[in-house]
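haha ok so turns out i had the wrong file open the whole time. this is the CORRECT one, sorry everyone. sequence first:
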Amino acid sequence: MKWGIKLTSISLLFLVVFVYSCKKHDLKKITGLTFDQNLAVPIGYGEFGVNELLKSMDTTILHQASNGELSLVYQKQLDTIIASEVIHLDDVTQNFNATPPGIVSSGGLNYNPADPVIHNASSEIFSYTTQNGAELHNLNFESGLITINVSTTLKHDLVLIITIPDLTSGGVAVTRAVNLTYSGTVPNTASATINLANLLADFTAGGTLTNSLRINMDATVTGAGNPIVGDETVNVSMNLTNMKFKNLTGYFGQQTLATFTDSMLMKIFSTPIAGNLNFTNPKLEFTVDNSFGIPININFMNFSSVNTLTNQTTQMVLDQPIINLAIPTAMGQAPVSTVFRLNNTNTSNISSLVDTKPKYLKYSIASMSNPAGNVGSLNFIESTSKMIIKTNIELPFEGSASDLSIKDTMAFKFEQADAITKIKSVLFRLKVDNGLPLSFTGQAEFVDANYQHVFDLFDTPTQLITGAGVDNTGVATTTVSKSNDITISQAKIALLGKVKYIIISGTADTTPSTVGVKLLSTYKIGFKMSVQTQLK
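then structure:
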């Protein structure tokens, strides 16, 4: 006597007894099947690699090395500090009195075109105010503007020549002449501008000061036949605006460049599971790419992991929380990198970051420029300079697992109720060739529409897969074969019509090893399955 049994029922029964990770894969070479009484028939086989078995994990962060070693890698760019955040050139205005002193002493004189010309030369210092105690030395301008406004109450013609010896173009000092021709009213005003693009400024006033530019003013008054009463003035206002630098040297002060608190979700499994999972070689790296020619240190503070389910916080103790950044030695040099590494050699409880529960890694970071003060070489910075802080958390699949619980529910429908009465028992034989250092013990509970127990597949949870052996480095070197006979009795077959769901549960354990085990992408697991039916 023969009858057809559809793939749906057999596939579901097979999935009950196979590893949870494989449950979403299709069997190969299974077509429409028929069964002879008491005859064992092969019904399918399959082989899966490790990558396929990790579908229950967050595979968007799964990384595979060239040697097949697998790890979870979390990456994040934390902060970027640009040049204008380190040194910002604020607008500034300074006023000077350029009144020739001879005018004051000659009050009441009555000039006419035949009288001598009054000439006066004077020097001033333009002082630039900075923040954070910064000291400017040499500045190569990208852009900016100096506006010179001159106002006089003299009722005579005035020519004021302003030279800035510390502001040069091609080595030549910048000069501007402001002409004020008396036209019958006072104050008499005029202005001139200096485009700062591509000019070079020496803010040391010839090596004697900082934040200073020397200003030379040469005033010439030509009499227009009007009296001078002695209280006349010549006032100069210089405005520096919209300044940007190409590059700059000096001392840029002690300032906090970045302070922030951030977090990163460490989620290994897409849903939390129970059990013990120990990653023996977690690695946490912070990389800083820096093109500032400034001594900078970074303080890593308040490292902790927070269980998202219980809110339990575990503080991480760092051996050396403050690091000094590598800096370029000259302008134009490519950014230099500093890597701050945390691992199980310098952070005793770093493994607290990793287990079967989703966790947040929380941390605070603060960076400071010139932590030792104004010592050593001058600082330098370019308009394109920046500091980029990145983090990289790597969890190599190295370690051990025990009682790692796996559970899932799948819908079930036995589509051939009329065949139930004709079957006495069904025997499934599952042969597994396992190259993974992982064993699996499982159970399947058949329940009704209200999730009430109908029957269990096994009398007790049964080990279906034995873990492969490993060498002294934790790498699996053998393939272990194991056969399982699974009998569905007549009593259980008779209850299949009540079953609406199958709850699959089990535990996974790694092969015992003193060094833990490694999970490589080259590992494979294969199976073959046959079925024997016994009819009434």
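The helical segments are 7-17, 50-53, 83-86, 101-105, 490-494.
again sry for the mixup
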